[in-house]
Structure formats: structure tokens, C-alpha cells
Amino acid sequence: MYNLRRTKILLSTLFLTSILFLSLLFSKPHFKNSNSKSPKIHFQNHIQKQVLETAHWACQDTLYKSLCLSTLATFPNLASKTLPQIISSTVSHTVLEVKASSSNCTSIKKQFSKKLSSLQQWALDDCLELLDNTIDELKSAISDLSPNKTLNSNRYYDLKALLSAAMTNQDTCLDGFSANGTAPRSSNVGIVRSEIEGRINTISQHVSNALVMLKKIPGAHKYEYSETMKSEMFPDFGPAKKKFPTWVSSKDRRLLQSSTNETKYDLVVAKDGTGNFTTISEAVDVAPNSSATRFVIYIKAGAYFENVEVVKKKTNLMFLGDGIGNTIVKASRNVVDGWTTFRSATVGEYFFFSSSQLAS
């Protein structure tokens, strides 16, 4: 009986000891885990603080600060990005917005194809073309912002010109709908502008923010307009030299300054039939696409009644006439007669260039 009682006591002791040991064993890792989370949370808070500080610094002075902050918050590793990289990411984000807006315009055009007036159809076509141009301009800006390219005066003015053109495109797009604002708001035609306006305005706001951030790039202040530059003939195209922007090559300057009888022409347009063509549009149509060299079209004295459209694939094209009052190009398209502002230009040209290429 004594041995049995002793055995029971011993087993009870062993059982309690085991429970205590297991309790300590399992409670120890839990103690470690609770302590290990603290540095991680602290680290995350530190990174989040850096991201917020970077976003607020980059978005400072922008006109659309809330949009700027919410956009930058979506960029990974924002705190480690340089300002050109932040601008590049903003522009890349804008390209996606432009593509979405283009798809929206295409959908509206298909959905209401039989209910839109001819002017509304043209206005949507204008927007699609302008959005396509915007994508090209923004992609070129992204290329100029790449880390392997050093910011200089030519590249800085390229960036400003490209972003400014991209923003102007959106205003021109919406102008096409303003011309026919008499349609009832409740009709399918009347709601077209309201259906696209939000996306179009967002694109403009993104580009506006990018332009403001551009001024903060280290060294950019050197290229802002001085009083001397403002007094030059072409301040919007950067510093001038001998009345020409500095990115215009000496060869092109000679070409622009030479008289007509000293210039070599690629094509001649003449009303009297003594040239290659009698209309400017015909000459533009046969001009090479994506030309790497200057293509000169000489337009002889005369009055040419036509709307000339130079599409973006007609690069390095140059018109040369016989002077003011001698070579005259005019047409009669206007908004009152049902044309959009974009299509009413007598000579409509997609002006897209890279000053660094032109200077070479």
C-alpha cells in the first residue's frame, strides 16, 4: 500500500512537471514573436513617413495637389525615386489615362453612331487624333526623362514643349463640342461632352502637375526665361541665337535665310501648271513619310484656296513661298458653318520635334 501511494505521488509530480515544462516551452516562442513585431512595425512606419514626405515635397506648388498626392501614393518605392523618375512615373500613369479616354471616345462613337450629328462625329474624331498625338508626346517626354540622359537647355525646352502640347490637345478636343452646345442636355448628342470631359480634364491636370514638378529638377532654374530671353523673337522655343532658336542647325539657318533661287527644292507647286502639282495638298501627299532629312516644297506665287493638312508621319517637311502677298494660302472653313476649330485651320500641321535631333 505504501509503495502504491508512493508511486501515485511520483506520477502526479511527473505529470505536473510535464505540464509546467510544456507551458513554458510553448509560451516562450509567443513571447519572442510579440517582441519581434515591434521593430517591423516601426520600420514600416518609418518608410510610410518617408513616402508621405516625398509625395508632399514633389507635389508642392502643383495646382491639383490632391490628384498629385493620390497618384504618387500608388508608385512603388516612391521614397527612393529621383524627381525625374517621379515625373516619368506620373507621365507613364497619364499615358494609361489617355488610352482609357481614347477607348471611351471610341465606345461612345460606336454606341451613338446613328444619333450623333456630323459635327459631333468630327469632334470625336478630333479627340481620337489628339489623344493619339498626346500619347506620342508623352512617350517622347518619358524618353527625355530617362536616367541615361543629362538635363540640358535643349532637353528641358523639349520637355516643356511636349508637356504643354499634350495639355493643349485636351482643350482643343473639348473645343470641338463647345461649337455645338445647343443640343439638349438630355439628348444623346448633348451628353457626349459630359461623358468624356471628366477623363479629358484629369489628363490635363496630370500634365499640369508634371510641368510644375519639372521646374524643381536640380539645375532647371538655369533654363527658365530670363529677361534677355523674353526679349528675343522666339522665347517659347528656348534661347535664341541670331534670331533663331539655338537648336536650329547652321544648315537649316542657311536654308531659311537663303533666297528662293538659291534653294534646292524637292517639289514645286504652281497654280499655272509649271510645277509638279497645282495644289499644296497633292505635294504633301506624295512627300515621304518619316523623312530623316529636310524635304522642301516650293510654292510659287499665287492664291491657293485649300485646307492643307500635314499629318504627323510627314516629318521634316518645309514650305517655301515667294513672300508675303505673293504666295497666299486661304480657305473658308469655320465653326459657324459646322466645322470644329481643329478642322477649320487653313494649314493644319502636327508640330512634333526633338530639338536635340534637329541640332545634330
TrEMBL record:
GO biological process, one term: cell wall modification
GO molecular function, one term: enzyme inhibitor activity
UniProt keyword terms in alphabetical order: Aspartyl esterase, Cell wall, Hydrolase, Secreted
Pfam family, one: Pectinesterase
Subcellular location: Secreted, Cell wall
Pathway where this protein functions: Glycan metabolism; pectin degradation; 2-dehydro-3-deoxy-D-gluconate from pectin: step 1/5
UniProt domain Pectinesterase inhibitor: residue ranges: 50-213
Gene3D superfamilies reported for this sequence: Invertase/pectin methylesterase inhibitor family protein, Single-stranded right-handed beta-helix, Pectin lyase-like
InterPro entries, per database record: Invertase/methylesterase_inhib (IPR035513), Pectin_lyas_fold (IPR012334), Pectin_lyase_fold/virulence (IPR011050), Pectinesterase_cat (IPR000070), Pectinesterase_inhib_dom (IPR006501)
Signal peptide (from-to): none
Family: In the N-terminal section; belongs to the PMEI family.
PANTHER family reported for this sequence: PECTINESTERASE
Protein name: Pectinesterase inhibitor domain-containing protein
Source organism per UniProt: Malus domestica
